[in-house]
Amino acid sequence: MNKKGRVTIPTNKGFEKETKEIMKRWGADSIRDCDGTELPDNIKDFDAKVYSTYFVVRGDNDWARKNTDELQHIYLMSEKVMAISDTVEIEPLKGYFKEQLEVDYNSNPKKYWEVIDRTTGELTDNWEISKNGFIIITNAKFMHEYTLSFLAFCIWDPVQMYNYITNNWDIDKQLMYDPKYPKTREYVIRHLKEWIAANPDTDVIRYTTFLYQFSLVLNDNKKEKYVDWFGYTMSVSPKMIDDFENEYGYKLRAEYIIDNGYYNNTFRVPTKEYLDYIDFVQRYVTSVAKELIQITHESGKEAMMFLGDCWIGAEPYGKYFKELNLDAVVGSVGGGVTVRMLTDIEHVKYVEGRFLPYFFPDTFFDGNEYAALNELNKNWLTARRAMMRKPLDRIGYGGYLSLAAKFPKFIERVEIICDEFRNIYNNVIGVKPYASIRVAILNCWGKLRSWQSFMVAHELWYQQIYSYQGILEALSGLPVDVSFITFEDVKSGVLNDYDVVINAGTEGTAFSGGKNWLDTQVIEIIKKWVYNGGGFIGVGEPTAIQYGGSFFQLSDVLGVDKEVGFSLSTDKYNIEKKSHFITDDINDKIDYGEGTKNIYAFKDTEVIDIEISDRFSRKVNIGEVKLASNNFGKGRGIYIAGLPFNFENSRLLYRAMHYAANKEIEMFKAYTSNIMTECHFYPEKNIYAIINNSTNDENTIFYDINGKEKEIKLKGMQILWLKN
Q: What is the CA angle 652-655-659, rounded to 5?
């Protein structure tokens, strides 16, 4: 086993000797700084590749203060104010953290701001700005609600703000400047050249990231008020708005960004105007970032992009990402989904994952070593599943190494993880793993948001989405091929490339599809494809929009629909639970998460799981279907009420996909019977990896690629490599 390489660790001044010791134990070959730390002066003595964090649009407050007209902006909406007279007063920043934001009163408010009667949705021009900066609306309609959409300066970088508050820093609060303005664009190019000349020991410039921060705004209690990891609200500026209008021929209204206060978050079905704006920003960011990266390469250094912070406009699955000519992408690993988000990226030489926990004092404090170890193992086990399908090229950690060094068991466990990672990489890199199913996730975003569905922030659990996020976490480490497609892709004829299509989400969201399910061409194509043998799996409220007497527009494919109160006069009798192939491995009650209420089955649908209240003796119109299967021509439809991630649900989904695709027999190739274990086969090398996802010892029946059985015993968290 190779005991060195492919690992990056943080360091800082004053911790040089200890860093070298940990480097040797972990086999690290690269070192890095972090936000708030500085690399040691004798950095070349470490005999390692050196990463230096570089911020394109923050860090030089002297420049920012001399050019306050070119600070970055954000579009914001005020709180709603109800008219109790014919005059309404709005305080723009009420409820916002005023250390982060400052209203831009100088950039022609009448041109870029909008006052909207939210009761009617109409614009009103009857407003002025008072001497104290409030908005005074006249001729207001009694009991109507009004909002102000306005431009504000970002006077504190949100990521530095988070780190500042978390670590109790007492340093200069960093402003953000906008390269959309020619003077600032010229400056950031010049500054990079000067920085490179002053940092000859740096091998890799770790851009964190390029121009525009994802949407992150705090409230007046220093808590997150609005977060959208994919949001474009912080890319706007008067110049961006004007340039957009000059190119597209129509005005970029504030409301096209504000979107009723939803800010076009990733759950919203994107409008044409918003998609136009995304494309416009992506092209501009690409033009600037390309120049920065070219300068980096001309200096003999590598360019690495951090997947986060100011990554808006440089998304790795966007149309223009290839043009950047990046060397690498690094991102934070929250689990298997974020591993695949990184490893599926094309057009870079390598990808790196920054694992958890981050070495910050919110985790690394006296008496918390067990919790830190628990987070480490949980993070590793979920990420490892995904790497069996497609491994990261490198792993690493961030924060203050001096804090982690106080936990010896933690240091020891990371040492084991680093060795295991290198072994995985050496065995499976460049080898296509066996996949028995080709599955497509169908939503409004498709490839642009590959492995990014159902996220608000970085793979964090939210009550409304963990029941869907579990689908992606399961898929990230299952032996299947996964793609992400749009409704336009469906119409272009891609369905024949897949065995199964999954549509999941809540009614009206971009992930369920909203009004796209009123497109008869989409309906016809999918139904024909299933009828001829395809498999369709719906989770939560798939294909949902009330139309034509149905809530699910593919209710005939799924064999179920949702009772919204309109068909209670029609009796429904199919409530008997049946044993089924899909649940053969499940012995306990299935966890549907938040689930979905009021789902009922049609007459010939197979009800696999249903919850029935004991309050009703009349066996009609009762029960809530949780899992069902339906034959549709030669194909099959499967309905699941919700699917949070656990290993029982991962196996349930694996079985459901094979059943939907009429490939039940194929499932027992390169397979293990114990749900806490999984098997991956690599035909080119003719080897199997049997992994134990549990910290306990496990027994399992292993089936090789020909279906031959063998009993296997695995230690806790073990990977067993077998030659065929």
A: 135
Spatial CA neighbour of 385 closest among 452, 336, 433: 336
According to the model, what pLDDT value does residue 1 have? 62
Q: What residue segments make up the domains of the chain, in order of their start?
A: 1-54+327-430, 58-181+211-301, 438-667, 669-723
Q: Which residue has the tokens 């014919």?
A: 86
Proportion of the chain above pLDDT 90, given as a percent: 93
Residues contacting 534, CB < 8 A, separation 6+: 495, 498, 499, 500, 501, 635, 661
Is it true that the peptide bond before 138 is cis, omega within 30 degrees of 0?
no
Class assignment of domain 669-723? mainly beta
pLDDT at 378 over 90: yes
Looking up tokens 């490599």 gives: 721
Q: Residue 309's Cα: distance from chain center in Å?
A: 13
- Return d(Cα 171, Cα 163) in angstroms, integer: 11
Instruction: Give the phi and the psi of residue 73 in degrees, each rounded to 5.
Output: -115, 170
Q: Are 603 and 651 in contact (CB under 8 A)?
A: no
Contact 672, 702 (CB under 8 A): yes
Look-up of token digits 């009922």 = 600
Q: Which amino acid is at 713?
A: K
The two three-digit tokens of residue 525, written as one number? 């194509």
Q: Rounded to whole angstroms, how far apart are CA atoms 536 and 644?
A: 19
Q: Which H or E element spans position 648?
A: helix 647-660
The pLDDT, as a whole number, for residue 228 is: 96
Would you call 188 helix, strand, or coil by DSSP?
A: helix
User: Distance between CA 575 and CA 620 in Å, rounded?
Assistant: 8
Q: In 299-396, which residue ranges form alpha helices assigned H by DSSP?
A: 336-343, 369-387
Give yes or no on whether 58-181+211-301 and 669-723 have one common fold. yes
Report field, pTM of the whole predicted structure over 0.90: yes
Q: Which CATH architecture has domain 58-181+211-301?
A: Sandwich (2.60)
CB 236 within 8 A of CB 217: no
702 neighbors 694 (Cβ within 8 angstroms):
no
Distance CA 618, CA 610 (A): 16
Whole-Å CA distances, 338 to 55, 99, 459, 578:
23, 32, 7, 37
Give the H or E element holding residue 198.
helix 182-198
Assign 243 to helix, strand or coil.
helix
pLDDT at 306 over 70: yes
Out of 3.30.450.180, 3.40.50.880, 2.160.10.10, 3.30.70.100, select the CATH number for domain 438-667.
Answer: 3.40.50.880
What is the CATH T-level fold of the domain 1-54+327-430, as seen in this structure?
TIM Barrel (3.20.20)
Q: Which two tokens stand for residue 721?
A: 């490599």
Structure tokens at 183: 């003077």
The helix or strand, by DSSP H or E, that contains position 401, with its residue range, turns out to be: helix 401-404
Compute CA 687 distance to the chain's CA centroid, rounded to the nearest angstrom: 32
* Of 116, 107, 97, the residue nearest 72 (C-alpha): 107
- From the candidates 117, 157, 309, 609, give the one annotated as an active-site residue: 309
pLDDT bucket at 516, cuts 50 / 70 / 90: very high
Q: What is the DSSP string of 275-298?
A: HHHHHHHHHHHHHHHHHHHHHHHH
Beta bridge partners of 353: 331, 395
Query: What size, in residues, is the chain?
Result: 724
Contacts of 618 (CB under 8 A, 6+ apart): none
Give the DSSP letter string of 403-461: HHTT-HHHHHHHHHHHHHHHHHHHHHTT-PPP-S-EEEEESSSGGGGTT-TT-SSSS--
pLDDT tens for each residue of 25-69: 999 999 999 877 788 888 888 999 999 999 999 999 999 999 999
Residue 564 CB neighbours (<10 A): 12
309 labelled catalytic: yes
135 φ/ψ angles, rounded to the nearest 5 degrees = -100, 125
SS3 368: coil
3-state secondary structure 13-79: CCCHHHHHHHHHHHCCCEEECCCCCCCCCCHHHHCCEEEEEECCCECCHHHHHHCHHHECEEEEECC
Average pLDDT over residues 616-637: 92
